[in-house]
Structures are given as structure tokens and as C-alpha cells.
Amino acid sequence: MNLVRSAPGRPALIALAVLLVGWSLPFWLIQTQFILVVAISAAVWAIAAQGWNIAGGYGGLLSFGHSVYFGIGAYTTALLTIHFGLTPWVGMLVGALAAAIAGAITTFPALRLKGTYFTLATFVLTLLFADFATHFRDFTGGDVGLSIPFLRDAPEMFQFDSALTLYYVVVAILAVVTLIVGLLAASRLGLFLRASRDDPDAARAAGVDVTRVRLVGLSLSAAVTGVAGGVMLQSLRAIDPVTGFGANTAFVIALVALTGGRGTVVGPIVGAAVLIPVQQILSAQLSSAPPGLSGMAYAVVVAAVMLVERRGLVFLIARLARAVTAAVQARRPHRPGGSPAGGGDATRAATVPAQEIPEQQRSGS
Amino acid sequence: MSASRENVRTGPDGEPGLLRITGACVTFGGLRAVDDVSLEVGSGEIVGLVGPNGAGKSTLFGAIAGAVRLSGGSIEFAGRDVTGHGAQRMSTWGVARTFQKVRLFPTMTAEENVLVAARAHHRNAREAHEAVAAALDMAGFTLDPATPATALALADRKRVEIARAVASRPRLLLLDEMLNGLTRQETDALVAAVAKLPAAGITVMLVEHVLHVVRSLCDRLAVLHHGKLIATGDPADVLARDEVIEAWLGRAHAEGAR
Q1: Distance of CA A344 to CAs A314, A329, A338, A347, Å?
Q2: Cα A93 to chain center, whole Å?
Q3: Spatial separation of the C-alpha atoms in residues B130 and B78, rounded to whole Å
Q4: Does B121 sit within 8 Å of A207, measured CB to CB?
Q5: What predicted TM-score, i.e. pTM, was given to this entire model?
Q6: How far apart are CA A55 and CA A95, in angstroms?
């Protein structure tokens, strides 16, 4: 099993697995209403992180500002519902478009700023948008934010009879998004994004229009994260500047992808499945503890993953799987005449380091 | 020295010059890395660019490939003024290059590295994949194409880099010290591969230090020293000139040769 490599055809399988595993969870794992709410939240963050991964993972544009696109997606969907009665199913797509336009605009700092400076610029942007959302009170509802009308059991307005139905729908959206991002990663654009991340100069010399690739990549990335914002709005039936545009949102989106394994199709899902429950269960358990303690516990989890395997959980799992396979093979009696087992091991061992991004080339130019 | 006359050459197929560099200058701060270089390369030629370290060879390559800006002069390629255009545009127009220090995409396999160039220069995926196989074959790469770039030995990394350049369907290929650090055997194999390129419609310019290769492979040499072009012409002839020996191998050699 190799979680790391992506080949065409695999995205469909992965998406199907996400759908089936996700839909099966209520039958054996999700037993309480609280866990169900956590699971919905995890699925939403997984969608947002899938979007982040297009630019941040495959494209190497390490953004700590994806809350901007998340918030634009949520606010656009909410405003269209409130003012025009537009169904969120369409509103979310309009939100994605608005987020894509914002993504295209933010590409321009990405063209001028390298690595860390780009990251800083994206972070400053989140602060700016949170201020906008608070300041333009009449339009955005200020600090309180926006609420959408509560309609019981109205699937055409993205509202359902129960949280369980909502969960099934959100998982289905996650599966579709995973399929799209997976196909994108295996496409020409995905290849060019990776080339531009690995070595922009060599990519240009090979004929890749690095600027255009980043523009398209960041726009698509923003669009998918914008969809996540719309889904979050529907699950909360409300959005406010902190949830929509807050620095915490920006960090969670990036950390989910980074902890799971950036530049891999399953990374954002694994990251969300681990981080979000940890974060939310801890904050529920520690609600009587001094404020900030749950945040610290959460930070410890992220730091631990980064220390053990900085490329993320997917790579850690792949490493463990290899170790187990190697141990099993070592226990088998050696066959005479040179078995291919040794050569096979060497090939597999070589597969994962290929994904290693050398430090000096991690930041694009 | 008026080099302009003997620089004007046509290729074996009688086409006019593919590349025409006129009075090219590149300055870094106060340093003139390339100083008033005029050079013409005909279609189908293999031209060696030689000279001591720091003579401006790689900088001139960078300028031709669109990665380094000229501070003066002009470059014409395939009858079009390409002065000031960037690396991606030059690639589209048919200039490919390798780097002095091999630069593969480290997170990709050998095949994917070549595929990047192939997909940028071929209409559809099927054609691109065929081009990848052909380019790897042409460069003499015989390992599993799915081998990660970081797991390759130097000679194979160079082969992949050359294949990547070839997969971009170039008319002009710039090879920067491709033989550096290779064994005699690996050198011979790569030289044989490069010798076949003109037949495939690829004109070659190479920066090289290995003398016997320069002598046997190149149709013509251009010698750079302190950024200036000090000699061009037939390899045996150029390498026998005093000023070339002095610039390249040092005064002691020049005196010893006398």
C-alpha cells in the first residue's frame, strides 16, 4: 500500500474509500451527538485543507491566509441566501468563484515574495479581512456576523432533518472534492505546480509558465476552500468574523494539511481526522481548565507529529507500514537462488524519499 | 581582433545562422561577466564554448536561455529578435538547456522530470508520454523510469536532465559541463548520444573542459576569456593558438609549448 504516490485512477479509488468509510462511521464509531458534530466539523476542515493543499502542498505556496477564501465563501453564501433567497447549493459555487477571484489577486504578492515572505503576506491578509468583516457592519453584521433562516428539513436549501443527514451530505462533498483535487494533482497542472515548487528556474527552462501555473493553482485552491466556508456556514447556520476570517481558521486549515501530509491526496483527510477531534474533544474536556490550555494541548500534538515525521502523518503511516512489511519478510526463511525480496525492499525504500522536499528548495520564488 | 567575419557560418544544411548574438554584454554589479560577445551558430552545428573558470561561459548560456538579462547587445534566434525574453518563452521558441549543477525536480521520478518538459511542449498526454520514452532512450537512460530523481547516481541524473531538455523539442540545446564528474565510460556514452543530436534536428552548444571531447565532438570552438570572445574556429586550429593556450591553460603551458 502506498499512500504517497498518486497516479491517475487512484483519485477515484481514494474518493470512493472516503465516501464508504465516512458513511460507515455512524454505524460503529460515531455514537453520540457530540462526536457527530465533531465529525461534521472535521469533514468541513478536510474540504478546506484539500483546497489549501493545491497551492500549499502541490504548489509549495505556503499560505497562512486561506481563512480569507474560507470567509469569502461563507459570507457570499450567507449574503445571497439572506438578500436574494438563493439556495446555498448555488450560493456556495458563487462563493467559490468569489474566493477564486480573491485567490487570483493574492497571487500577485506570491509572484514578488519568496517563501517565508509570501507566508507572512498571506497572514497579514487574514487580519485585514477580519477587520473588513467587523467594520462594514451594515453589510456583514459586524462582530455578530450573519445568521441564515432556520428551516427544518429543506434539502433544497442545504438544511436537513438531522445532523446525521447533514453528516452524510458533508462526507459526500468531501469525497467529490477529494476526487477533483486528486485528478488535478495527477493532471498537467498538478505536474507543473510540483515542478514550480521544486525548482522554479528549472521549470521555466522546461517551458512551464510558472506565473500562470501559480495563478491558476492559487485560484482553484481558493475556490475549494471557499466551498468549505459555505459548508461550514450551513452546518452552523451562522458565520462571524472570527469563524470566517480569524487567524485561528487560517492556522487550522494549514495545520490540518501540514500535519496530515502536504502534497498528498489523503493527507488533508488524515490530518483533519486526527487534529479536529483532538482539538474539539480537548476543548470540551478542558472547558473548566484555564483558557488556552486546550490550545496548548493541540499545539503539543502538532509539534509531536512534526518532530517524528515533519512531512506529516501519511508519511509516518507509510514508514510504519514499510517497517512492518520488512519485519514480516525478514522472518520468512530465505529462498535459495537470490529472491527478489532484497531488490523490492530497496525500490520501496527509495519511493518515499523522492517526496522529500529539500530544505533549500521548499520555498518557491 | 575582428572576429565577425569568421563567426558567420552556415550549417551543413546550408541554413542561415540559427542563433546570432551581437555585442552581448552582461554586468553583475561592476563586473562585466560577458563583454561585447558576437557569435553566430548555424543550424546543425555542435559548438563548444571553452575558457577558464569564470570566463562567462555559463552566464552567456544563461543569457541565451533567457535566464540572465543582457545589459547590452542583442540575441536573434531563428530569425526573431529574442532579446529580453524570459526562460519560459525561450523554451517555447526552441531553446533548451541543462544546468552546470544538475537541477532535477527532487520530488519527482525520472519519468516525471522529463514529462514536465514534454507536457509543456506537446499537444496531448499520449504524445507527451511517447516523447518522454524517446527522450530517455536518446539520452541513454536505461533504468526504471519510475526511479525517484533523488535515488539516481550523477550520470543518470545528467541523462534525465538531458532527456528533459530533449523532450521540449528544442532547436538549440545548451549543455553546461555535462561531463563533469563522470567516468571515462559514462563520458563516452554521453558523447555518443550528443553526437547524434544534429541528425535529429538539434543544434548543440556545450560548455566543456574535457579536451579530447571538445576536439572530437565540436565542429567549432568559441573561446571566452574575462567575458570576451578571444577566438573562434576549427577546434584543432583554435586549441593550437598561443593566446588560447595562455588564457585557458596558463602562461607556463604556453611557454612550454613553444
Answers
A1: 21, 11, 12, 5
A2: 18
A3: 26
A4: yes
A5: 0.87
A6: 18
* Interface membership of A351 toward B (CB under 8 Å): yes
Chain B neighbors of A350, CB-CB under 8 A: 147-148, 150-151
Residue B192 sits at the vertex; the CA angle it makes with B188 and B198, to the nearest 5 degrees, is 150
Q: Which residue among B92, B119, B151 places its CB closest to the CB of A191? A: B119
Is there a contact between B88 and A210 if contact means CB atoms under 8 Å apart?
A: yes
Q: Write the DSSP string, B44-107.
A: T-EEEEE-STTSSHHHHHHHHTTSS--SEEEEEETTEE-TT--HHHHHHHTEEE--SS----TT
The answer to whether residue A342 scores a pLDDT higher than 80 is no
Q: Fill in the amino acid letter for B144.
A: D
> HSE (CB half, 13 Å, CA atoms) of B78?
12
Average pLDDT value for residue range A279-293: 74
pLDDT digits (tens, 9 = 90+) for B67-113: 999 999 999 999 999 999 999 999 999 999 999 999 999 999 999 99
Cβ A323 vs Cβ A315: under 8 Å: no
Q: What's the pLDDT band for A249 if we cut at 50, 70, 90? A: very high
As a residue count, chain B comes to 258
Average pLDDT over residues A33-54: 96
Return the pLDDT at A350. Answer: 38
Whether A192 and B106 lie within 8 Å, measured CB to CB: no
